[in-house]
Amino acid sequence: MKIKDIVNRDLVTLTNCEHEPIHIPGKIQPHGFLIGLTSEGKIDFCTANISWYVSVTHTEALGKKISDIFGTKAEKQIFEYINNDKNKDVFPLEIDLLGKFFQISIHKSFDIYVLEAEFQFAGKEKLADVYTQTIQFVTQMNDTTSLKDLCALVAEGTRKITGYDRVMIYRFDEQYNGEVYAENCREDLEPFLGLHYPHTDIPAQARELYIKNQLRLIVDVDYVPVPIFTVDDKEGKNLDLSLSILRSTSPIHVEYLQNIGVGATLTISLIHNDRLWGLIACHHYSSKNISPEIRLAAKLQGQFITSQIDIRQSNDENVNAQQTALALEQLSGMQFPLLQESVQTIVEAPELLNICNAAGVSIISKGKIYKNGLVPAEEQIENLIAKIKNKTSDKLFVTNKLIDHYDDIGKYSSFAGIIYHSVGNSDYIIWYRPETISEINWGGDPEKAIIKDSTGLHPRNSFEIWKQIIKNQSTPWKQYEVNGAVQYANTLHNQLMMISLSEEEEKYRNLSEILKETNSELENLNWISTHDLQEPLRKIQLFTSKMLSEPNINQSESIFTSLQKVSKSAGRMRILLDDILKFSRIKYTRENLEKIDLNNILKMTLVEMEETISENNAVIEYENLPEVHAIYFLIQQLFSNIIQNSLKFASSERTAHIKITASQEPELVRHSNKIYCHWICFSDNGIGFEQKYAETIFKVFGRLHNQEEYKGSGVGLALCKKIMQTVGGTIHATGKPGNGTEVKVYFPCDPLDTLL
C-alpha cells in the first residue's frame, strides 16, 4: 500500500495571496494528532506525529480499521459519540487510547470524520468554576448600557477566564478594516486600544473561515507544522480542515504574529446578522494552551457580545434617536397655510435640520430653491440633482463621501455628505453635512501591509503608529437619521401635494365664478336676443301681410315678390329664435329625472305631427318602447325633432318611411366607453349623409345643405344632443348617402333595472 502526504506546497504570490487555500494546508499544529475516518471506520488520513502520543506510526495506522489500532471498545465509544449529536459541539470525547487519556474533538469534513486528539488536561477546570465565572460576568453585564462598556467588560472577563496577556475586542468596518474597540492587557504592555489595522491583515478567505469555525487556537507560534498522510488511492486527494482545531495556519500569518512578538493566540468570532462583525483576539507572549472548559467559557463571552449588539447600539443611539423623533414629530405637527410661500417657512424651521443633525437643507419645489443653513450655491444644487437623476432612478441617495460618487462636484464643494430624496413632481429635499477632517492611527502603514522580497511575500514588520488624515468626507449618517429624513420626505410630499391641490382648487374656484358669471350674462343676453326680437319680427310679418293684401301691391309683381321674401325671412328668423330659446333653456342637470313610458310620448308626438306626416305622405312604423328615466317634455321634443328631421330630408324618389325600434328589456350596451341600458333607434329611407359628417350634424347651425335647398334653423339635432346629455344619455347617427339615416339614442342605467 502506497501512502503520500497532502501538504500544500503552492507558492503564495502577490496575485494569489488573497486566495491562499488556508483551509487545505495538509498539516496541523503539533499539540495533538489527527485521524481521518471513513464511515466504515477505516483510517484514511493520519498525521505523522501520532507516534509521539501512542505507540503506533502513521504508516501502521493508515488503511486499517480503527478497532485494529485502538480496540473495539474505543471504536464503539467513538461512533457512539459521532452518532449522538447532543453535546458534540460543546464537550470533546474523553477516551483512553492504548493506556493514555485524550480529549477528542470530532467533526465531519464531507465524507470523512476528522478526529483531533489532545492529551487530557491534568488540572482541567471544573464546570462548576466555569459556571460561577459566567454567572458573575452576566451580573456585571447587566450593569452596562453601552456597547463599548460591554466590550470592555468582555475583554476583562475573557482575560480573567483564559489568563492571556492581552485580550482585544476587534471591530470591523464596512471594508473590513479593523479597530481595537476594547482592550484589557498586562500593565507592562503597550496598549493597542484605538489602533486601526488594514483589511489585508485578515484576508477574505481567513474571514470566511472565522465564520465557519468560531474558535481558533495557536498554542505556539514557533511550532513546526506536522504533515498529514493518506492512502495513495486517488489523484488530488485532500482534506478540508475548515472546522479543525489543530489546523496549521498560513505561514504569512505566523510570520505576522512573530513580528509583533506574540507567542500564542486564541481568536473567537463575533458574528452578527450572518456577517463577521469582529473578533475577540487573545495574545500571549509565550506558548499557551487552555482546556475545553475554558475554551467554551471564552466562546460564551463572544456570544454575549453578539447577542447584545443590536440592543447596545440602540441604547448608544437612543438619546440622539429620541431627539430626531421629537424633531420629526414637531415638524410633522406644524400647521402651515396651504400656499407655496409656506415652503420658505418649512425650510427655515430648525426642526428640519434636527431631524438628521444636518448643517443645511434645501427644498426644491416648482423650480424654485428654498435654503437654510450651510448649503451650496443654487447652481451646484441644480447640477447635483441632475447628476443624481442621471445616475439612478431611486428616490433616496445617501453618502458621507460625495467625491466617491461625483468626483467633479466633491472636489470643489463645501459639503461632503448628503441625504437626497425625491418627493415627486420634480420636487426634492436635500440635507447637507460639511467635510470633517479626521485622524486615524494605524498599527503600521496600511499601504505596506504585505512586503515582497527575494524570498517571497511577508507581512509588515513595522507596527509603529502611522497617522492618516481623512479628508473629503463628513461624519457618517446614522440609520435613524436616514430613517427620519425618509419619513419627513414623505410628509413633505403630502404637504406639497396639499399646497398644489389648494392652489388648483382656488384657481378653479375663481374660474368657476367667472364662468358662472359669464354664463349668467350669456343667458340674459340670449333671453333678450331671442325674446325681445320676437316682437319686431311679428310686426314685420304683420305689416308685410297687410301690404300684400292691398290691391295696388298685387299690380306690381316685383314689389309683391319682395314682400313675400321679407315675410318668409321673418318667419324663418322667428323659428330660429324659438329654437335658440329652447336650446338655451336646457340645463345640464339630472335632478328632475323620472320614470316615463316612451310609448305615451311617441303617441302624443305622432298626434301633434299628424298633419305634417300626412302632408309628406310618410309611413311611421314603430314597436313597443321601454320605460326610462328622463324628463317628459324634453323627450317629446327629442322625438319631434328626430321625426321632423327625417321628414325634412326625405327622398323625392320614394315614399318616406320611418321605423322606430328599441331594446325591449334592460341590457348592458357599451358606447363611447360608457355603459347604457336602453336604446331607441330611428331609421329612415331619406337622402342620408356621408359618415364623416356624423359629428357635424349635432353642432349648433351645423348644416350640410344650403337654406334654399332644405329649410330649417340648423339647431334641431344640436337640441337633441343637449337633451340626451341632460338626461345622462347620448345620441349617435349613421348615414348612407342616398339610402337613409339611422339615429340611435342611448339612455342610462337605473339602479332598479334588472340586467339579465
TrEMBL record:
Its EC number is 2.7.13.3. The keyword Cytoplasm does not apply. It is an enzyme of class 2 (transferase). Keywords: Chromophore, Coiled coil, Kinase, Phosphoprotein, Photoreceptor protein, Receptor, Sensory transduction, Transferase. One of its GO terms (biological process) is regulation of DNA-templated transcription. The keyword Kinase applies. It holds the Pfam family GAF. PROSITE patterns: HIS_KIN (PS50109), PHYTOCHROME_2 (PS50046). GO terms for molecular function: phosphorelay sensor kinase activity; photoreceptor activity. Residues 501-528 form a coiled coil. It catalyses: ATP + protein L-histidine = ADP + protein N-phospho-L-histidine. Signal peptide: none annotated. Residues 528-751 form the Histidine kinase domain. Residues 146-303 form the Phytochrome chromophore attachment site domain. It comes from the Bacteria. In the N-terminal section; belongs to the phytochrome family. PANTHER family: PAC DOMAIN-CONTAINING PROTEIN, PHYTOCHROME-LIKE PROTEIN CPH1. This is histidine kinase.
